[in-house]
Model the fold of this input.
Amino acid sequence: MAPRTGIFSSSVGTKILIGLTGVLLVVYLLIHIAGNMVVFLGPAAFNTYAFTLESNPLLPLVELVLLSWFVIHIYKTVRNFLSNQTARPVAYQKKKSAGHTTRKTFASSTMIFSGLWLFAFLLVHVKAFHDGWGTQYEWPAGGRDLYRQEMETFANPVMVGFYIISMLVVGSHLWHGASSAFQSLGADKPAWTRVILPAGKAIAVLVAGGFIVIALFAHFYGVRS
Amino acid sequence: MRLNLKIWRQAGPTAPGRLEDYTADSVSPDMSFLEMLDVVNEGLIVKGKDAIAFDSDCREGICGTCSLVIDGVAHGPDRGTTVCQLHMRRFKDGETVTIEPWRAKAFPVVKDLVVDRSAFDRIIAAGGFVSINAGGAQDANNILIPKDVCDAAMDSAACIGCGACVAACKNASAHLFMSAKISHLSLLPQGQQERYTRVTAMIDQADSEGFGSCSNEGECEAVCPKEIPISNIARMTREYVMARLSK
Done:
């Protein structure tokens, strides 16, 4: 008889943890993009929104919770990937997708790579907008002039290029991940799956497309304003 | 028909294996894939060579013994079909076909195309059964089971344990197999008493056998000769959560 494993150490428990943190991160991303859309309302609205967030005393706690989701998601997926690699020591000489009902896509086959890219992106992203990168500007009404910082960052074509590629990677990760997370949590019944699968892809397009539009807006119109 | 075959040959579990070229002449489109291999083997035996080892038993798609990966797809290109029910009319004259065994750490190669699938037996032995005395046959209307529940249990029970799900999965995961067995028993009254000990014991056993985890790609469902859906895997997850919470 096999030894009893801890709930989150078993193959099913690992899936649950990855799926749960995945769903939470998708919800966070949706809130994040909704907030970022305020940029279209101009510098005053955007900086006021940013200052409201940054001056909230609960922010460090929220950030800590968010960080824990990222850490758990990344740690469990990397460990799971490495353990899965050992499950087939001799590779097939010829292997292809079975087609038919499969959900296998380029996105699903590259989850670990898109995930690791996003991890690298996050380090740059947090450094640039959370800690501040380069010249920092004060906003007269309070807080930082993050609108100006965003416009200046995206004036650089290298930054815009890196950002757009990273957002396409986010889209790819969510193309499989957003719906897959629900399957991992046990939510798969024919009536639900008919909604969950296309909804996951719609979220991927919405999130990636939304962030890309903001970056392009900042690049082409931001410097003038 | 004439086919060029590339077949995995491996003398034993620890011997190195490789793809070897063979030619199948005079293949009738009405032959099954295994009958085609039988003809190739007869030719090898006449020449005094070692026949290609492969598994088969019922040859009518119900026993789960045949197990070949054909051109990279477990059980070959037809949907809902075992290799023994795959026919040569599916292939073109002059085509090159690659034949390999199931590949997984938990399914070591015994010889050529034959693998040891006793890991599945050990998963079943860990809890995939009903050990309570359910008594004699009940009156037909004594235990009422809704039709949809009955159908779902029966569809799950259709799993023949061939291992194609493991062979097709990029992680060599046994989740579809386990979830079919767990769904079958957890949906019916006779399986209730051991419902939660069963799911934990089977998952622990599969993990210790070296099967991988599930990435929700559904390649298993696509190759399953009995077309068992991955919604069973979601049910297994729910059963697992309930089992762990109830302890």
Notes: Chain A touches chain B through 49 residues (CB under 8 Å). The CA atoms of residues 31 and 143 of chain A lie 21 Å apart. Residues 11-84+107-222 of chain A form a domain with the 3 helical TM bundles of succinate and fumarate reductases fold (CATH 1.20.1300.10).
